[in-house]
Design goal:
The structure is a single chain. By secondary structure, this protein is mainly α. 48% of the residues lie in helices and 0% in strands. The longest helix has 37 residues, at 77-113. The radius of gyration is 24 Å and the shape is flat.
Length: 144
Amino acid sequence: MVERFHRVLRDSIAHYIDSTGTNLDVVLPFFLMANRTTLHSMTGYSPFYLLHVRDMVLQNEGDLKTKISPDIQDVDQVQILEILKSSLLKASKEVRLNNWKAHLKNKAHYDKKAKERKFKIHDKIYLFCTARKPGRCHKFRSFW
């Protein structure tokens, strides 16, 4: 997941970095904000919502006050906490369910092409070896 995030980060920021590459500190916060407010396809929620149980208020939305949903504007703090707790539990259950559905979908996709292999003693096989010899270029070498 981290490698996938880094690929998206690199590809997205590449469009906005200047030719000298010195404006990363300006561009990076905008990418992170966009990433945190985008709905995740697997969970159905944005990372910001899952962390704060509310949507992020963006600067182009007029005033910068915290958004409070209409059903919790005129209630006391205990009721607000109960509403937030129930919202978070609901989101958590949905995320778990969506993760399980995605897992089953990925497993079914993998199983379509997966083959059961049986080896016998003295069969010749390829060994995947990532160890590098010092002083040698590893970029173009085969790991098998």
